[in-house]
Hints:
The structure holds two protein chains of two kinds. Chain A is an all-alpha fold. Chain A contains twelve helices and no strands. The longest helix of chain A is centred in the C-terminal third of the chain and has 26 residues. Chain B is α/β, with parallel strands linked by helices. In chain B, strands 5-6-7-3-8-9 form a six-stranded mixed β-sheet, sandwiched between helices. In chain B, helix 3 packs across helix 4. Classes of the chains: A mainly alpha, B alpha/beta. Chains A and B meet through helix 7, helix 8 and helix 11 of A and loops of B.
Amino acid sequence: MLDDFLVRAALAGIGTALAAGPLGSFVVWRRMAYFGDATSHAAILGVALALATDLPIGLGTLAVALAMAVTVATLAARGWAMDTTLGVLAHSALAFGLVAVSFVPGARVDLEAYLFGDILAVSKADLGFIWGGAALVTALILWRWSALLTATLNEDLAAASGLNPDRERLILTLALALTVAVALKVVGALLIAAMLIIPAATARAVARSPEAMAALAALVGAGAVLGGLQMSLTFDTPAGPSIVAVAAVAFALSAGFGRMRG
Amino acid sequence: MTAAMPPLLAADHICVRLGGQEVLHDVSMRIARAEIVTILGPNGSGKSTLLRALLGIVPVSHGQVTRSAGLRIGYVPQKLQIDRSLPLTARRFLSLPIRHGRAETDAVLARVGVPEVTERPMAGLSGGQLQRVLLARALLTQPDILVLDEPTQGLDQPGEAAFYRLIDEVRRDTGAAVLMVSHDLHVVMSASDRVICLNGHICCEGTPRVVSGAPEYRALFGLGTQGALALYQHVHDHDHTHDHDHGHDHHHGTHGHDDGHTKDGHKTDMGQTGMVQTGEHKTGGHHHHA
C-alpha cells in the first residue's frame, strides 16, 4: 500500500495536519501567526545548511527553525516590539535562506519543492520522519494540555497555580519548530503557517470548547489534504498550494456558517 | 496584632527590579490567617509588582519571600483579557488547570452570584460577571489566602460595593486571609484590618484608623488617581455636619488648595507632592466601619 505515491502523500499530509491542528489552535489563541511565519521561513535557511553540510534536510530544518523560534521567544520576553521584530526576522530568514541555497550546487532546481512542498515525492523514510515528528508534537501538546491552556489564558494566573509559563512557552516553541520540520516536505516553507492557522481558524467558528477546536482543526486539516490532493490530481495543480486553497475555502464556508448562526 | 501568629505569606526586605529599574525597595510585610490587608498606593507605586513578587511570579533581586508550607493561594488578576478566538465557557475556565466536577462549579458560581453564566463564553461576560467568575475560580482551590489585584477595576460603584461585600462574606465563611491591592479608599477604610501604603517602599502601615492619620498616607492620597474623589472630599471637609450620613466620610483626603498644616515629624521622601493635611479633628472618631 505504501508503494503507491498517492497513499504516501495522503498519509504524509494527514500526519502533518493532525499535529498542526492542535498546535495551530495555540498559534491562533496566542496570536503567534507571525511567529509561525518567522519560524517556517527560517526552514529555508535550514535547507541550505543541510545541503551544504550533507546533513539530513529534516535535521537542518529542525535546528534552524528551533534557533529562530528560541530567538523570537527570547526577544519577546525582553519586550521587543514584536510586530516589527517578527516582520524583520521572518523576511530576513527567507531572504538569507534563498541566498544561501543559491550557493549550493544543484539545489536551485529543487528550490520550488522547499518553498511550496513536494508531497507527491514523499518517500517511506520521509513518512517515518513526518509521523514520528507529528506524534511527538501531539504527545507534547496532549501531555501539557491543561498547563498550556492556562498559560495561554493568563501567565500570572498560571504562575499562581504553580505552573511555569516560561516552560509552557518553550514547549510550544519546540512543538512549532518540530512541526515546521515535519511540514516542509508537505506544503513547503511558505505555506506551513497556513496549515497552522487556517484549519484552526476554520474550527473556531463552530467549536464550543478549546478541545473541540483543536480536534476539529486536525480534522479540517486532514480533509484539506485529501481535497487538495484530489484537486491536484484532477486539475494538475501544485499539491501544496492546492491543499491550502481547499483549507481556505473551508474557512470561508465556516466563517459564513458561523455568522449565520450568530 | 498579628506578630504572634505565624504568617501565611511574608516578605523580608525585598527589592524587585523590572527592566533595570528598582520598582520595590526594601519592602517587608506579612499577612496572617484570616486577616484582610490592603496595599494602597498611586499608579506605578509597585502594588501589583509586590503581589506578583509575593506569589513568586516575578523574582526578587534582594531579600526573601516566604510562603507557609502547602499554602493554597487563590489569585484574582487585575485583568483577564480573553481572546475571542478561544472558545471557553465559564465552566471550562473554572477547570483550568485543575478539573472540577459539575456540581462543584455550579455551586461556586452560585456562591459568587452568577449562576447564569455557567455555559456562556468567557469573552462575552460583562466586567462584573468576569470578576465574579475569577473569584469563583480562586475559591475553587479552597485557598488559605485570596490575593486580589484591583479586583473592581471597571465596575460601577454598586457593583464594586457588592463585590467587596462578597469578599467579606467569603472571608467570614472560609477563614481565608485576603490580600488586595486597591486605590479605593472607601474599601480601605471599611473592610481592611491593615493597610499598607506603598510607593516603591512602604510609606506607612497600620490599621485604617492609624494610617488615615499619617501624613504619608495623605501625601499618597494626593498623588493618586482619585482627583475627582479628592475634590469631592474637599467639599466634604467643609461640611462636617453631614459626615456621618454619607458613606464617604472615611477617606478624609487632602485639601486640594491647601498646602498648609504640614505635620512635622512624619516627613517622608514624598515631598514632591507638597505634603498636605487637614486638621486633626477629621481623622479621629469617624471610622466606625473600620
